[in-house]
Amino acid sequence: MKAKAPVSAELTWPQVHAFRLQRHHLSHRAPKRDLAKVVSDIGGAQAQLMSAAELQIAVRVDCTVDDVRQALWTDKTLVKTWLMRGTLHLATADDLPLFTAAMGKRWIHIRPSWLKFMQLTETDLWKIVGEIGAAVNGTPMTREELIAVVGKGKSAHVRELLKSGWGGMLKPAARNGRLCFGPSRGQSVTFVSPGEWLPRWREVDPEEAIVEAARRYLRAYGPASKTDFARWWGAWPGVGNAAWSGLGKELVQVSVEGARLDILKSDLDALATAKITEPVQLLPAFDPYILGHANRDHLLDRVHGPKVSRTAGWISAVVLVDGRVAATWTHVLANKTLRVTVEPFRKLTTGIRSEIRQKADALAGAVGATKSELKVA
Description:
The chain starts with 9 loop residues before the first strand and ends with a strand. By secondary structure, it is an alpha+beta fold. Among the domains are: 91 residues, Arc Repressor Mutant, subunit A, CATH 1.10.10; 97 residues, no CATH class. The protein is globular. The mean pLDDT is 94. The chain contains 18 helices and 14 strands. Strands 10-11-12-13-14 form a 5-stranded mixed β-sheet, with helices on one face.
């Protein structure tokens, strides 16, 4: 039997939580000028619910949701497209070429079951992806305009696939760098070519890209396993093997209360000395901090799992206390008042309630409210 490699450090989960909170910019909000940097550092904000993505950024950056929209549609330092796990994300314009190179045909495994469900062959799929890429340019096109070009001469079935609100045929094109979102035209979404829409574009080698993607993942989500990375990336397990192999001697193994995980050697000192400076956080729905690992046992007790990971893939907004989930929360914005309702898993101390109220006040300013109201159920 092959002996296990020696570990470089014995760590506790509170130390790991402290490190991840720092790397996720949850120890303190970054200045507005660093908005794009923060989005890059966390590997993007999940955006199938756009308001949640805006709040994911606002809890980390001293900015408003309008600042996020300006970065996306005016400054073009952010971009909206389908990325990790095939879900919508806001990523930085500078990162997109790297991400799409690491999600291209070299690394994305098209499941036969998916092709069967879509009633396509893999050859058909990539042919349509190419046609989508050829149809879009730097001028925003609505879905209907795109279908008129790509769907011309195609079967009714293919045209229906292109109409899908879930992005069935558009996701592979997006993840291959052929398409991203443009600004909405009225009630209609639009699509553009990222190579023409964004201020600059570069070609990245896929072999180098997947290793760099894993390196960036570990900077924010480490210590973690290659399985964690593959799950976060939305790829078959072999991608994790390739990424870890490429990182090679950059990795060291640590033991976190008995769990053997990997970290970048360059981050070992920061991990060992990390301290939690702001113990309470309000994280919006689908927050990246919650979505980074295959198993969430280190974040919450399993009995509370269904309150966080709900039906249809919904991830609740949560309250963190010392890096672990202590409650869920919802909010309503009405008459310039942000009303926050917290449902705790256990009784919250007066001090924790006070810190939640402070976080709610900060969030109120980000969404344009003049005050907040807190209710603890």
